[in-house]
Amino acid sequence: MRAEDLANTPPVATLVRRRAVDALVTSGLAERAVQAGEEAPTFRLRDGNGRVFSSRDAVLRGPVVLAFYRGRWCPYCTVDLRAIESASHDIRRLGASLVVISQQTPENSLETQKLNGLSFGSLVDPGGKVAHAFGLRWKVPDDLRAVELDSGLDLSVFNGDPSWTLTMPARYVVARDGTIEYADISPDYTQRGDPSELFPVLAHLAAH
User: Fold this and answer.
1) Is the pTM of this model over 0.90?
2) pLDDT tens-digit map of 35-76
3) What is the Cα–Cα distance from 199 to 191, expressed in whole angstroms?
4) How far apart are CA 56 and CA 204, in angstroms?
5) Most Cβ neighbours (<10 Å): which of 85, 97, 128, 165?
6) Reduced to 3 states, what is the DSSP secondary structure of residue 175?
7) Residue 207 class from Cβ within 10 Å (0-12 exposed, 13-18 middle, 19+ buried)?
8) Spatial separation of the C-alpha atoms in residues 96 and 190, rounded to whole Å
9) CA separation for the pair 171, 167 (Å, rounded)
């Protein structure tokens, strides 16, 4: 995916995006985000169809897998979401529920579900408030904003929010007591963990 992306992206855009990733990595934001062993922030969000998801209610039924993603415009997120879908049967077999979260509008969240054949909800996080609670939200720098606008991506329209903030991709497993059992945060959006890494964590929780 990275090789194809590089081949089809103007060098200036690649440079600016890479510079933004490097700055995010060195900022330490990923290390300051909510980590394993901490209590997960609770939240209530709606999916693209308007159905309410309550994290507090969900953990009463079993562990919850949360996956934060940038938006359906991101090809790396598309690959990641499809990988998670391919693992979704095993995730549920191990007793967990599964939702994904982004800042994009309800319409774009619903489109994400349809285009990728997702069997789980894509929750709408207006303004990235839940992402902020998890420590995952960051401000897009001016040079990156200019590059994305030039490429046809206007986040203020796509997300229905003028803040021009993004969410770092991340995966969490929240145990029934509300504690985060597993955290995988990707300040470099081109690198994601394999969903199979969730299985031993969920198996451990199922056994206890």
Assistant:
1) yes
2) 999 999 999 999 999 999 999 999 999 999 999 999 999 999
3) 19
4) 21
5) 128
6) coil
7) exposed
8) 26
9) 12
